[in-house]
Amino acid sequence: MRRSVIGMMILLSLSKVTGLLRTMVLSRTYGAGEISDIFFASVMIPGVFLGIVLAGINTCLVPVLTMAEKDGQKEAFFNRFISLMFLVSLVVVFAIVSFSHPLANLVSSFKGDKLYLVGYYTKFTSIIAGLQIMTYTLVGYLQQNNRYFIPAALAIPMNIINIIGIYYFGDRGMGFLVGITIVGYLSQLIWVMLPFIKERFPFRFNLKARDDYLSYFLVLIGPIILTTSASQVNLLVDANLASSLSPGSLSLVNYSGLVYGVFVSVLAMSFSTVLFTKQSNLFHEGDYEGLCLVTKDNLSILMMLIVPLTLGILFLSREIMQLLYFRGNMTYENISTMGWLLFFYSFALAGWSINDVLGKFLISAGESKKTILPSLLNIITNIVLNYILIRFWGVYGLAIASSIASYVAVAASVNRTKSYFEDVKVSIFSLSLVKYVLAGLGMLLVLYILKALTPVDNLPLLIYIFTIALVGIILYFTGLFFLQTEELLEIRSRIIRRIKRT
């Protein structure tokens, strides 16, 4: 499983690096202004509503396929399921086209021509919705078969197409930008279809009025949609409020959110995606103690990486945004704003990761309804705090609200899952979590002292970031060894044993 996690992290890193390059080319060409605001809003409309459904499809399909596989009905059910999803994709595209202008009002506070253009271009970006429904249906099948690498590399072809198109032809205007984005999403569908074509999967359009597996899927997906809607509703509220501020605010929130999303995807999603398949298998085998132990161990390893990453982002937030975006039409004021946004968003990294792992634990245990309360608390807390904090801190209030809301959801998630762990006498969190925090704070303190007493910040920006990152890694893991952290000592023992075997 750990090889799969490492492989996914590498491919997701490549995906996110190319994604950042795409965003850098976009920001260089259009900056943070009216065109970028209209583009982000028109892409966000299908993205927000799709995000609610797609996460549900991707999450629920794995346990349903596992159940169908045990009955020897996996291929037959998947044919029926993908046939249904094809029809659903057509309905979704038609609905977005029909209600594009009301939806534009929902996701933004733009007025006049700017609002009209968002609705107009949404008619075209609606195609993305249909493409993504089909793409993530195929992704769910691949992940259930423990084939993680193709889905992990999903964004690479799209990003390459967008980078080349925007870099060379970005001056052709908004229509071209929307068109090349749609082509990029089409490339994702083609990419994920390749293994099915290569292995000649027997696709047949087939619908069945009564389907026990589909019924089980629908039972699971209802609560999951409510659960996964938390992040999408939060995104919707953030976008609406950001668009009510000065021109370019929506773009700045999006640019910083994309960078934050890199860290979420590479670490948290790598662990939770691979872990989820393992969790589902353990539950269906009746190994409840093993289910709790593997969840605890992987959550502990994830936190060992998340803690220094979060503190490192806090220390380097402005420099990271400057390295990525300070070119073309971007101003230093834009960079400063995005740096502070990333600073405040980074606090949510641990909260998001814990919620994701514990949420998938409940889903794998067939208790998807118990994920509803944490999600509702996340949404309500975020919305209330958004409207309060935006009055005092402007656009920064959106990031602060998201971070606080993620930990409210953590408290609810822990409360919902603790009984399962208590039944088999396993704790949710490792005692090493305290050591992670102590080592991380020690690392952060030394880095601030190093910055104050040495001319390290006079180095070229890229060298400075890598130097701080390298020193931070050494300090953090040295601190963990000094504190005799069990997980790190176990990793060292495994490495030594493997070296001796060779």
Largest sheet: none
Mean pLDDT: 82
Tell me the radius of gyration.
Answer: 23 Å
Q: Span between N and C termini?
A: 21 Å
Number of strands: 0
Spatial shape: globular
**Elements, N to C (H/E):** HHHHHHHHHHHHHHHHHH
User: With helices defined by DSSP (H or I, 4 residues minimum), what is the helix count?
Assistant: 18
Which helices and strands, and how do they pair?
Blueprint lengths: L1 H29 L3 H37 L3 H25 L1 H8 L4 H33 L4 H4 L2 H15 L4 H25 L13 H31 L6 H36 L3 H38 L6 H14 L2 H17 L7 H22 L2 H28 L8 H22 L7 H22 L3 H16 L1
Structure description:
The protein is mostly helical. The chain folds into two domains: 2-428, no CATH class; 431-502, no CATH class. The protein contains 18 helices and no strands. Helix 2 packs across helix 4 and helix 2 runs parallel beside helix 10 (249-284). It is globular, with a radius of gyration of 23 Å. The mean pLDDT is 82.
List keywords for this structure.
single chain, 502 residues, 2 domains
Task: Produce a short descriptive summary.
By secondary structure, this protein is mainly α. The protein contains 18 helices and no strands.
